[in-house]
């Protein structure tokens, strides 16, 4: 049985005071929950603040990005050893926002965003390998744009992102990954993907993982859904056999709603 994961991606929200308040409130509400792996991914500036707030709880800490070099002249980047020294055990890799793939794009602006954020399939693959080498658990994000879905390209896009992410990894490394399917059009829009359709795409991802490893390894890997996960849709999502939890943005920024998501995920264990 796969233990569900509920991960809060705080994105570029919370100064240190706000991060402390939020993490302390979450720790207070759900810090001792056992049937759900709970992860907070605050901005890098708040990692150590959040670490202090979740001390002695079952909540783990994750970063939102990593660079693959260990140290050097890479202004603004953060290495694996730096994240580990802040107490991180997880790192989100290849979020659509880091790939410069936002919903409702404005054509000119999108080109600028892609230059600024700039993750590609190749950089995502390097970052996964770097994270694994420092014993950080990568939470690897994949997902299609609205235009790609409308063009019937969802499976093709997801398949090529998964294949690129896995390039050069051995089965015993793939076994350590967590995947998150986040359709870009569902992120921050309130338009959650239909639970059955999310389940179908997660099943596709699991079949790709099985091809790269084996059925038994693929059955162990947690695959999350992300995109407008809220307390009012989490139960339906968690009822789906392939959905092992959520990667949550907006609803992770309030202790009450994130607590409800965790309770629902833990309850899905029966
Ligand atoms: P929302 O939950 O705000 O849609 O964000 C999802 C997401 O991008 C998590 O990584």
- Calculate the mean pLDDT score and round it: 96
**Order of strands across the biggest sheet?**
1-2-3-4-5-6-7-8
* Bound small-molecule species: 1,3-dihydroxyacetonephosphate
Kindly estimate the percentage of residues that lie in beta strands according to DSSP.
5-15%
CATH architecture: Alpha-Beta Barrel
Percentage of helical residues?
Answer: 40-55%
- Tally of DSSP β-strands: 8
Distance between the termini: 11 Å
CA radius of gyration is 17 Å
Shape: globular
The biggest beta sheet reads: 8 strands, parallel, barrel
Which regions are unreliable across 5 or more consecutive residues at pLDDT < 50? none
> Class, according to the CATH hierarchy?
Alpha Beta
CATH topology: TIM Barrel
Number of domains in the coordinates? 1
**Going by CATH, what is the homologous superfamily?**
Aldolase class I
Structural class: alpha/beta
Number of helices: 12
Order of helices and strands: EHEHEHEHHEHHHEHHEHEH
How would you describe this structure to a colleague?
The protein has 270 residues and is of the alpha/beta class. The protein has a single domain, classed as TIM Barrel. It is built from twelve helices and eight strands. It has helices at 16-30, 47-53, 80-85, 107-117, 121-133, 146-150, 154-166, 171-174, 195-212, 215-220, 234-238, 255-267; strands at 5-9, 37-41, 59-63, 90-93, 137-142, 178-181, 223-226, 245-248. An eight-stranded parallel barrel has the order 1-2-3-4-5-6-7-8, surrounded by six helices. Helix 1 links the parallel strand 1 (5-9) and strand 2. Helix 1 runs parallel beside helix 2 (47-53) and helix 5 (121-133) crosses helix 7 (154-166). The radius of gyration is 17 Å and the shape is globular. The termini are close together. The mean pLDDT is 96. The site of 1,3-dihydroxyacetonephosphate has 14 residues, from strand 8.
């Amino acid at each position: 049985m796969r233990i569900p994961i509920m991960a809060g991606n705080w994105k570029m929200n919370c100064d240190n005071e706000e991060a402390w308040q939020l993490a302390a409130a979450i720790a207070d509400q759900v810090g001792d929950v056992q049937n759900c792996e709970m992860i907070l991914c605050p901005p890098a500036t708040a990692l150590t603040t959040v670490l202090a707030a979740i001390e002695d709880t079952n909540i783990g800490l994750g970063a939102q990005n990593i660079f693959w070099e260990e140290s050097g002249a890479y202004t603004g980047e953060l290495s694996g050893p730096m994240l580990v020294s802040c107490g991180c055990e997880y790192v989100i890799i290849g979020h659509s926002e880091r790939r410069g793939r936002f919903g409702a794009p404005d054509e000119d602006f999108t080109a600028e965003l892609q230059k600024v954020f700039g993750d590609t399939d190749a950089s995502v693959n390097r970052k996964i390998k770097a994270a694994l080498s420092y014993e950080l658990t990568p939470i690897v994000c994949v997902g299609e744009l609205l235009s790609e879905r409308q063009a019937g390209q969802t499976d093709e896009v997801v398949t090529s992102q998964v294949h690129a992410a896995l390039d050069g990894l051995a089965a015993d490394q793939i076994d350590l990954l967590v995947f998150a399917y986040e359709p870009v059009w569902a992120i921050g829009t309130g338009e959650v993907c239909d639970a059955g359709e999310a389940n179908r795409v997660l099943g596709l991802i699991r079949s790709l993982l099985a091809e790269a490893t084996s059925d038994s390894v693929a059955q162990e890997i947690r695959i999350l859904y992300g995109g407008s996960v809220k307390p009012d849709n989490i139960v339906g999502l968690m009822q789906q056999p392939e959905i092992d939890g959520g990667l949550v943005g907006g609803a992770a920024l309030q202790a009450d709603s994130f607590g409800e998501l965790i309770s629902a995920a833990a309850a899905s264990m029966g």
